[in-house]
C-alpha cells in the first residue's frame, strides 16, 4: 500500500513509493511528483534541461527523465529499484530539477537544527558531512537533510528523507547503520533519522575543510557566494540570482579541523556552539 499523498520530502509530495518511514508529512500545497522505474539499458547521449523536460545521467549508468507537465520522474535503470532506493538517494536529482523549475535554490549539502534554525553543512566529497550529521543525530540533535538542501522563496528549508547514508568506515566508527550493499554509485550503511518538521527557517552556512587545528573563520558575502556556486546541484544559470545573493549574505563560516576521528566530536560541538551564538 502506498502512503497517502500527504507524504514527501524536499518540498514535494511523492507518489508511487511506499517508503513512508523515510518521508515527512507534506502539506497539500506542495507540488506532486510521481516516481516511476523503467528497467532498461538506454544510455543517454546529451543531458538537457528545458522549461518542460529534463534528461540527466545517473551516476549508476542509468538516466533520469522528468516531465514537468505530468509531474513525473522516471528512472531508467538496469535493474528494479526498491522504494527506499528511489526516496534516497535517487530522488535527489529529480528534486533538484523540480527545485529549478520552482525557482527554489538547491545545493549539495546537509542540514541540521540549532537555535531553532536550520544550518547548511557543505563541503567537497569525503570531507565528513554525513559523518558529522550522523554524530549530531546520535547525540540528540535534529538533522534536516543529508544529501541536498532545498530552500523556498522565504528562505525556509524543506526536510529531506529521514536517513543518513554512511560509508563503511564511518558506520564502523560510530557503531551504527544497516548495510544496504551497493546503492547508487557506492556501498551504503543507512542510519534512520527521527521525523522532523517538514519546513523550518534557515540560519546560515558552514563549510567544512581540513586544517591543522579546529577553528572557524567567518566568511564575507562574496566568499560565501563563491562557495555556494560550487555546491549548486545543477550547473545551469540560476533562475533567481537575487535570491542566491540574499542567501550568500547570511552568516557563514569555514570550519577547519584535523583529519581523523579524534576531531569529530569537537567539530560537531563547535558547529552547535557557533550556531547557537549566531
List its salient traits.
278 residues; alpha+beta; Rossmann fold; nine-stranded mixed sheet; eight-stranded mixed sheet; 6 helices; 20 strands; globular
Write a structural description.
The structure is a single chain. With 278 residues, the protein is of the alpha+beta class. It has 2 domains: 7-102, no CATH class; 107-277, Rossmann fold (3-Layer(aba) Sandwich), CATH 3.40.50. Helix content is 24%, strand content 35%. It is built from 6 helices and 20 strands. Strands 9, 10, 11, 12, 13, 14, 18, 19 and 20 form a 9-stranded mixed beta sheet that branches. Strands 3-1-2-4-8-7-6-5 form an 8-stranded mixed beta sheet, covered by helices on one side. A hairpin with a 3-residue loop joins strand 5 and strand 6 (53-57). Helix 2 packs across helix 6. The protein is globular. The model has no long low-confidence stretch (mean pLDDT 93).
CATH topology of the largest domain: the name is Rossmann fold
Determine the fraction of residues in helical runs and give it as a percent range.
10-25%
Weakly predicted, low-confidence segments:
none
So what's the overall shape? globular
User: What is the average of the pLDDT values?
Assistant: 93
Main sheet makeup: 9 strands, mixed
List how many beta strands DSSP finds.
20
Distance between the termini: 45 Å
Strand content: 35-45%
Q: Return the CATH class of the largest domain.
A: Alpha Beta
Structural class: alpha+beta
At CATH level 2, the architecture of the largest domain is 3-Layer(aba) Sandwich
As for the number of domains, it is: 2
Helices and strands, in order, run as EEEEEEEEHEEEHEEEEHEEEEHHEH
Kindly provide the radius of gyration, computed on alpha-carbon positions and rounded to a whole number of angstroms. 18 Å
- Tally of helical runs: 6
Amino acid at each position: 500500500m502506498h502512503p497517502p499523498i500527504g507524504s514527501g520530502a524536499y518540498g514535494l509530495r511523492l507518489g508511487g513509493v511506499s517508503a513512508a518511514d523515510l518521508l515527512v508529512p507534506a502539506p497539500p500545497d506542495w507540488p506532486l511528483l510521481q516516481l516511476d522505474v523503467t528497467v532498461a539499458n538506454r544510455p543517454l547521449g546529451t543531458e538537457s534541461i528545458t522549461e518542460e523536460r529534463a534528461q540527466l545521467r545517473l551516476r549508476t549508468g542509468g538516466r533520469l527523465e522528468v516531465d514537468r507537465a505530468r509531474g513525473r520522474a522516471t528512472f531508467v535503470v538496469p535493474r528494479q529499484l526498491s522504494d527506499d532506493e528511489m526516496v534516497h538517494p535517487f530522488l535527489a536529482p529529480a528534486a533538484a530539477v523540480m527545485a529549478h523549475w520552482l525557482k527554489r535554490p538547491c545545493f549539495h549539502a546537509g542540514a541540521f537544527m540549532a537555535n531553532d534554525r536550520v544550518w547548511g553543512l557543505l563541503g567537497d566529497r569525503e570531507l565528513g558531512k554525513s559523518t558529522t550529521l550522523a554524530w549530531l543525530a546520535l547525540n540528540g540533535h535534529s538533522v534536516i537533510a543529508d544529501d541536498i538542501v532545498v530552500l523556498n522563496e522565504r528562505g525556509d528549508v524543506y526536510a529531506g528523507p529521514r536517513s543518513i547514508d554512511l560509508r563503511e568506515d564511518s558506520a564502523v566508527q560510530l557503531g551504527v547503520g544497516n548495510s544496504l550493499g551497493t546503492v547508487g554509485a557506492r556501498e551504503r550503511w543507512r542510519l534512520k533519522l527521527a521525523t522532523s518538521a517538514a519546513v523550518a527557517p534557515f540560519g546560515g552556512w558552514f563549510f567544512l575543510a581540513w586544517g591543522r587545528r579546529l577553528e572557524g573563520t567567518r566568511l564575507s558575502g562574496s566568499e560565501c557566494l563563491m562557495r555556494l556556486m560550487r555546491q549548486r546541484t545543477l550547473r545551469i544559470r540560476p533562475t533567481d540570482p537575487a535570491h542566491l545573493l540574499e542567501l550568500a549574505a547570511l552568516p557563514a563560516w569555514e570550519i577547519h579541523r584535523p583529519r581523523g576521528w579524534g576531531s569529530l566530536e569537537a567539530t560537531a560541538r563547535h558547529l552547535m556552539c557557533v550556531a547557537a551564538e549566531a
